[in-house]
């Protein structure tokens, strides 16, 4: 299986995130890497996304949003029509490993893409309060694939 994306797929995803999806755009999500079987998305640190801790830490819901979005988008190239088909979350399991206090990056890998259901494994990294970049969450998502 080749790692090449269908023509226009990356541009469509970037446009969708930056221009069409208000929440992802508000979070500042960007596409860092995108292949036929994986995607890496990032969110820059912003105080509006933090818990009221000292030092401030990124709210876990932000990591979950990034993981869910990456897991679903990683499956889009497996659709019969990647530009017009759809993906919806069936189940998302996130395990938080440590507090995050910097930029977030989620990397999702396709585990299996069937005709109607796909599964992705997702890892989220961030700078931790001690200044190291480490995995802060790990998860797996199941997604309904709409082969329109």
From TrEMBL:
Molecular function in Gene Ontology: hydrolase activity
Gene3D superfamilies referenced in this protein's UniProt entry, alphabetically: Hotdog Thioesterase
Keyword Ligase: no
Keyword entries, A-Z: Hydrolase
Pfam families, A to Z: 4HBT
Keyword presence, Ligase: no
Domain Thioesterase: 57-129
Protein name listed in UniProt: PaaI family thioesterase
Source organism of this protein record: Halapricum salinum
């Amino acid at each position: 299986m080749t790692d090449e994306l269908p023509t226009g797929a990356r541009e469509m995803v970037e446009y969708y995130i930056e221009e069409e999806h208000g929440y992802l755009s508000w979070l500042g999500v960007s596409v860092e890497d995108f292949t036929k079987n994986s995607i890496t998305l990032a969110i820059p640190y912003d105080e509006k996304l933090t818990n009221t801790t000292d030092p401030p830490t990124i709210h876990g819901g932000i990591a979950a949003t990034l993981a869910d979005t990456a897991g679903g988008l990683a499956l889009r190239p497996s659709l019969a029509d990647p530009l017009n088909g759809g993906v919806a979350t069936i189940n998302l399991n996130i395990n938080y490993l440590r507090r995050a206090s910097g930029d977030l990056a989620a990397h999702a890998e396709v585990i299996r893409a069937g005709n109607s259901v796909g599964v992705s494994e997702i890892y989220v990294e961030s700078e931790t309060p001690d200044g190291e970049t480490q995995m802060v969450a790990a998860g797996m998502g199941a997604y309904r694939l709409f082969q329109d």
